[in-house]
Amino acid sequence: MANASPDLDNAEAQRQLNNNNRPISSGLWDTECTSSKLFECSRIRALADERDAVQKKTFTKWVNSHLSRVSCRIADLYNDLRDGYMLTRLLEVLSGELLPRPTRGRMRIHCLENVDKALQFLKEQRVHLENVGSHDIVDGNHRLTLGLIWTIILRFQIQVIKIETEDNRETRSAKDALLLWCQMKTAGYSEVNIQNFTTCWRDGLAFNALIHRHRPDLIEFNKLTRSNATHNLQQAFNIAEQSLGLTKLLDPEDVNTENPDEKSIITYVVSYYHYFSKMKALIVEGKRVGKVLENCVEAEKIVNRYEGLASDLLDWIEKTIAVISNQKFANSLTGVQQQLQAFTTYCTIEKPIKFQEKGNLEVLLFTIQSKLRANNQKPYVPHDGKLISDINKAWERLEKAEHERGVALRKELIRQEKLELLAQRFDHKTTMRQAWLNENQRLVSQDNFGYDLPAVEAAMKKHEAIEADIASYEDRIGVVVELAGEMEAEGYYDIRRILARKENILGQWGLLKELVVGRKARLEQNLALQKTFQDMVYMIDWMEDTQAQLLSQDFGKHLLEVDDLLQTHSLQEADISVQAERVETLNSAALKFTTLEGSYQPCDPQVICNRVNHVSTCLEELKQLADKRHEDLEESRQLWAFFQELEESAVWIREKSSILGAQGYGKDVTSVLKLLQKHKTLAGELLAHRSLLQILSEQSFGAAGIQDHILEVKADWKNLEDQAALRLHHLQEALNASQFSTETDDLLAWLQDAYRLVSSEDFGHDEYSTRSLLKKHRDVSDAVDKHRSHVVALRQHLGALPTQYRDQEVRGAVLVQLYTEVVEVAVLRQQWLHDALAVYRMFSEVNACELWIDEKEQWLDKMEVPERLEDVEVVAHRFESLDQEMNSLMGRILDVNQIVQQLLDGGHPSSTEVRGCQDHLNSRKDHLDSVLRLQNYLLECTEIKSQIQDKRKAIDATQYAGSDLGGVLALQRRLSTMEGAPCINGCVLVPFEGISVEWEELKRTLQGCEDSLMVAGRLQSFIQDLDSFLTWLVQTQTSAASDQLPNTLEEAEKLINKHAALKEEIGRYEEDYERLQAVNELLETEEAPLPHAALQQWLQKLDVGWNKLLEMWESRREVLVQAHIFHLFLRDVKQAESFLNNQESALALVEVPTTVETVEAALRKHKDFTTTMELNLHRIKAVIEAGESLISQNNIYSDRIRQRVDALASRTYTTTGESAN
């Protein structure tokens, strides 16, 4: 039932087309109908026209709604479909397949071709079209055009509708299924009763009910009334267009009529069906997408949890590392013990908890990967720094810091225990030292050493004994200081108390030493004071003598004298410095007596101060005089030194300037390079003297004329630098010119040598010498080509030379001209050498051929025709070998003629001689052919004559010629051939006349065997036909036995066509085969004795060969057919692989959507992709089934077919799996 429905729908459409195609004859109505019938007829016409107008408008909108997907549109249904282009585009959109490309032409033939392509596609889609041709659509036939569009709507819009009822599970199709769907969707609406597609839709409630059933939010159905049909229709059409996106195919006035058009309403209602069916599918797909999104959200939550826990753990690790990496410990034994206890608590309580969290993170990451893998999602990769490996690395750093912390705490504990022991030792020793210091301070604080020298000396000795005792006790004080220093270095926590006690001990120790030193100083003051006063008197006398020398006004007359005075003054300054130190010592010693603390004074401080001031004043005056004289001498020395250096610089500048002006620029490259090296050395000297001149110019002297002299030297220096730069420039130019000249000379010399070689008139005296010369000439030509770049470089070098070297342009022009001549002469010489080689080769071949001809002519002239038949056969065998040699000679002569023709075409100067040699050789060859034919003729005459004589003897002996009838017939054929041969002269006819006489005698002998001869004649004709047929049979078997296999589909088709032509040729020869069989039967009826055994043997060979030919043709045809089918299969495989490549590229570009809108778009796109893939999958399955069928049929390419089928099936399975995922 379901399969018959589309055919019924198509049949209904065809009946509509047929009815529309029947023209109405107005004349018949005018003559035979009454006025009432005329009115009825006009009414029917009006209704039909109105129906056609409604259908045209509806179908036009329907076509545009589909053509809009490819950016196309029609304005008039009848006119815009005439060229077939829009019709093709419409079918491509509806079917999703590509139709043949329309012909881009506006002529009628083009339009008919395009419409034919569209109609052919409809026929391939099993759409039956009757009485509809391409000319009807091109001519714009209204009714047939409407019928065609309705057929397309039935095929691609209505035929796909299938509804299964719930009661009997009956399946309906097409219009009934659509009507049933409408009834099912409007079952709950009391005012809607759909029984057809015409009047039941006039009030508009049915359209509104369909929309309200699926989208109740768009329409308030309770407010609609049946009386307001236009409003109902307009509302339904507008909402469907604006909210549902359905094209408004109808207008209210098209439906709200007495007889609405059924096809228009069906076309519009079908769009409702497809939209709401697709919406239902989208809801199901949305639920699936929701589940997918729910899984994605759950996975994302777990991922966020993992990242949060990983971040917290990493933060704790970093903070813990920062805390335990701090090496600052409590500076006491108790504090370090408390820190060690806290560290132990961390290791046993806090760290295990975090270690468990790290393990939980690894489990959580495994759970995430498992969920994502189960959902076919991309594996989760944590961000940088949050990988398990990163956490393990951070944990390793934590354990390393933990280990370092434990080691440091243990070391600190040991150090604090050591410091406590040192503090106890320090307290014990400081108590003992304190008592000893108090006792000795009391002894040295007493000042009772007397008032005279002996008393002072005795007090001094007693004091020295006290000092010795104190000095021996200093090491014990050092032990206390060392203990305090060690504890301070180790950072003892109570170091302040330790340091205070140490400072107290050191203070008392210092006080003791001060008391001892003060007492000793007071003892020595009286002795030292008088000695100091005497030394002051001696010092004042020396200063007065030195002052007189420093007041001299002699500063020198030249540089050497000034240097001597400076040296003398330096000695005086050294003496003054030494005496100044001594005065300073004396003053210090004297002033000590004025600044003594306490009440003891060995002398009046004022007297001591007066003497010290006097000595100091004299010393200062002496120093001022020495400094002034030193400055005067230095100024005199600088002035005379400046004069000397300035003069030396001026002389050096003049010397170098004269050198630069006197030297030339060299005559060749070597001399120029030497001058450049010298100039480089001079440039180094200039650079060294530039710094010296700069120093001199920066000095300033007030003497008159010095600045002018400096300016003159600077001007000379500037001229020298300019002169050096100019000379360097000229030397560079000279070097370039010398290099150009040298390279030009070398190249000119080489080109002259090359010119002598290429202009040589020696072309060789034979082929070998000419080949040798040609090889040498090729080497010279290659060298000339390689020097082209050198010539171009020299021309560019010439353009860069300065104007004073422009005389080199003449040499450059000569160089270019010489190079051009060498190239031209080389080309000519190469051509001449080739011509000479060809001539020598030709002469060599000609000489060889003529020697062979001379030898054979001599042999032929000396040869005599033998009389015996056995000798004749030996000579004939030699003539056969001579024929083979003649064929070889002909090939060599043809080569000579070809060479001569090439030389003549090239205009060789020895053309006349070459032509004469060719003519002579050809004439010799023709003469040899004539002689050879003549000898063959004479030899054959002798042979035939001998054979005739032998046959006569045999006939005379047996009186019966039947047993040797074949030999007689062979002689007859040879004789007839000789009769038709051209005769050269009369002497040649003499042997033939003798043969004729013998032949007449033989015929007279055979006159009694006339019947046998007739049979022999027929037998001869039969044998000739048999021979030619067997020859053709062998050739045809060779063609049929060819093992050539095609490599492409085109070659397979060509070979099949060629094989079919061979079959036609075999069919033409089949009549000859049957005729030979009939002649054989005729010969068997003859009473004359014949060689039946031999004939039967040949006929058996004929039958076997004919049957073998047919078998070979059939076998070859089977191979070619299998090859053709294999290449057709390869073409289908390539198309299938192209489909798979497109699908794989589309799947490779798929991205996971992130929003609901993109998910819906992706689902729509994937649904279209799945539909296309299913269509392609059917084609691919058909290709695979075809391949399996070929394999099962044992195709000659079964292995290759199996490989392609397996590869195609594997790719199809992979692509289908990826699409399903």
TrEMBL record:
SMART domains: CH, SPEC. GO terms for biological process: actin filament capping; vesicle-mediated transport. SUPFAM superfamilies: Calponin-homology domain, CH-domain (SSF47576), Spectrin repeat (SSF46966). The lineage of its organism: Eukaryota, Metazoa, Chordata, Craniata, Vertebrata. Residues 53-157, 172-277 form the Calponin-homology (CH) domain. Residues 1045-1086 form a coiled coil. One of its GO terms (cellular component) is spectrin. Keywords: Actin-binding, Coiled coil, Repeat. Gene3D superfamilies: 1.20.58.60, Calponin-like domain (1.10.418.10). Pfam families: CH, Spectrin. One of its GO terms (molecular function) is structural constituent of cytoskeleton. The keyword Repeat applies. InterPro entries: Actinin_actin-bd_CS, CH_dom, CH_dom_sf, Spectrin/alpha-actinin, Spectrin_repeat. This is Spectrin beta, non-erythrocytic 4. It comes from the Eukaryota.
